[in-house]
Fold these 2 entries.
Entry 1:
Amino acid sequence: MPSKLDSIYRRMLITRFFEKGWGKPENLRKVFQFRKVISSRESCFKLVPRDYPVEITKKEIGSDSTLIEGQFKTPLELHMPGVVPEESQQAHFQLLIPNKWRNEKHKPICIHLAGTGDHFFWRRRNFIAKPLLKDANIGSIILENPFYGLRKPNNQTRSNLHNVSDIFVMGGCLILECLVLFHWCERNGFGPLGVTGLSMGGHMASLAATNWPKPLVLVPCLSWSTASAVFTTGVMSQSINWDMLETQYFSDGQYRERLSKMVTVIDDAFSAGQSFIQNFNQSLQELKEDISDTRKIHETENSNTCGDKYETRGICPQEDSSIFLAKSLKNTKLDSENLTIDAKDTLSQKMVIETEEPSKELGSTLTNLMKFILPLSAQSKSDKIDITKTNWWEREALQFMRGMMDECTHLKNFSVPFDTSLIIAVCAKDDAYVPREGCSSLEDIWPGAEVRYLDAGHVSAYVLHQKLFRSCIIEAFERAKKIYENDVGEGLKCDITYEQLIKRYDKNIQ
C-alpha cells in the first residue's frame, strides 16, 4: 500500500515541474533519435574517447583523506550542440579518497548521482561518501547533476525543471559523463569501479551502468525499471501542470502528429500478456459464462425490453449512456463452445461513450477476461494516485508522457549491464514516489540482479536507512574484488580521439 507519509510530504513541497511545457519539438526529436545511440553499449561507448580531458581545480589534503575537485565539458554538448543549457555544459565533481589505501592493487571508487532536489555535494559527501571511506576504504566521486547546484540555469528556481525534455537531457549528460569519469579513474589506477544513487539518482545510475563494457558495481536505491510511473501515477504527478501540458500538446501539431509516433509505451502490452498467461484457464471459463450472459441480454433486447446494462441513445433516454453497444449485438453471433465471435455490423453502429464512472452493476457485465487483458493503468483503483484524467484529450496527453518516459528511461530500451551479479537494488515496499505496479521487474530485465525490499515508504527509507544503502554498496564491492582481479571485459574501443571530437563539434556549430 502506498505510503501516506510520501503523499503528505509531497504536498508540503512547493516544487512544480514542467511549467514551460514539453520542451522544443526539435530538441525532443533530437533526444528521441539520440536515445537509440546511447541505449546500445556498443554505440554509446564509442562516443567518449578514452583520453577525454578532466581538469583538476582544487585539492585539499586532510588528516586521513584527500578531497579533489574537478570539471570537464559534458560530452552531450559535443554530440548534440545547443540542447544542453549553457550553465549546465560544464560538469563539476568532487573526489574523496583515503590518503593511504589498504591495498595498493585495490582502489575502489564509486560514483554517486543525485536524487531529486540534491544540489551541490555536501549531502552525499557527509551521509554516504565519508562513512564509506571510514568503514570500507572506498573512495567516492560526487557528480553534480545538470540543472542542479553549480549547473543550475539562471532562470530556474530550485529544482523546478522547466520542460519535460530537461529530464532526458539530464539523463543523457549523466550517462556520457559517467563514461568520462570511468575512463579517468582507469587512467589514474583506480578500480574496481561502481555507481549508485538514491531515487532519481538510482535510476540515472542504472542507465549509466548499462554502457560500461566491464564489470561494474551498481546499487540503485529507491528506483525501478522506468520513470513513467513516477510522473503519471506516483505522488510526483501531483506537482505537474497537466493543464498547460495538454494545451501545448494539442496546440502544436508537432507533438501529436510527429513526436508521439516516435515513442512507445512499453509495460501495458507486457503486463497484459503476463496477466493473460497467468490467469488463462480461469479466464477461459469465465469468458464462456460471460458470453452466455450476453446471449440472455441479446434475447431481452430483441423482445423490446429496455435492458439496464446495454443501452444506446433512443432506446432508454431516461438512463445514462453506456460504454457498451446495444444494437450492434443484433447481428452478432456468439458461439460459446468454440469461443468465436462473428460481429459483422458492429462497426456500423454508434458507440456512446460513458463520461462518468460506471456503476458496480454495469461493471459486472465486463468480461472477467478483460480484467486480465486490459493494461493495469486502465484498471487503477483507490490504491493509485488519481490524477483525474477524464477527458479524451487529457488521456492522450498522459499517454504521450508515458510514452516519452518509457522511450528514454525504460531499462528494457537499454543494454543489460555487463555483469548483473554485481547489481544490488534496494526498493521500498510502500513507495508512493516510485510505483512498481504495472512495470517490468528488475529481475526480469536483468537476470542475475538482486533486489532487496525495505518495509518502508520512499521518504522514511531515505531518512532511516542510509546505513543499509551503504552496506549494500560495500557488499557489492566485495563481490567485485574477486572479479576485478581477473580483468575481464568486452573488447569495445572508441576510435575517435578527443581532438577529433572537438574539431567535429567546432564544425557543427559554425
Entry 2:
Amino acid sequence: MGVILFDLEEIPLPNFVNALDAWYTVFICVTQDGWADLLETFLNTGKEQNYDKLLVIYLLIAVSAGGFVFANLIVAVIVTNLEMAVKEFRDEKAMSDNPLEFHKDYSASEVEILPVHELLANNNTALLAQRPFKIPSLKKFSLRRLQAYIALIVALEHNMLEAEIIHLDLEKVMAVILTTMAQVRIKRIR
C-alpha cells in the first residue's frame, strides 16, 4: 500500500521505492524499533510538497495497528504455551497420585506379558526385578479387594486366550477367502 501511495517522483523517499523496502518499513513499524527515525525522515522529506501529514498518518496507523497485532500475537502464544504446560503438569500430577495406573509412555512391546500362574510361582525373577514407581499405601486394602483383583486378572487372562482363539479362527477364514478368490480369478482367466 505504501508503494502505491508514496512512490511519487515528488517525494524522494527510499522507503517506498519497491515492495521489499515497503515491507521493511512496515516491519520497523510493527516491531516499533526505529520508528521514531522514520517519523523524522517522513517529516523532513514531505514538507516541500505538503505530503508530511499523509506520511505521518500512514506511519502512526502502521505503528499502532502493527504494534497491537504483534503484541496480541505474542500474548496469544504465551497464553497457549502456558495452558499446555498447566495441562501437562496436571496430567503428571494425576498420574503420580495413582501409582497402580498404567502410564501412557509404555507400549505393550516393552512389557513382558506373563500369565498369572507364572507370576505367582516361586523363584520368579521377573517379579523380583520389578520395582513400583511409588510404594502404595495398603491401609484400605482388604482380602475382599485382593480377591476381586485376582478374579479380574484371571478373567482378563481368560478373555485374552479367547481373543487369541478368535484371531486364529479369523486367520483361517481369511485364508479360505483368499484361496477362493484366487480360484475364481484363475477360472476367469481360463
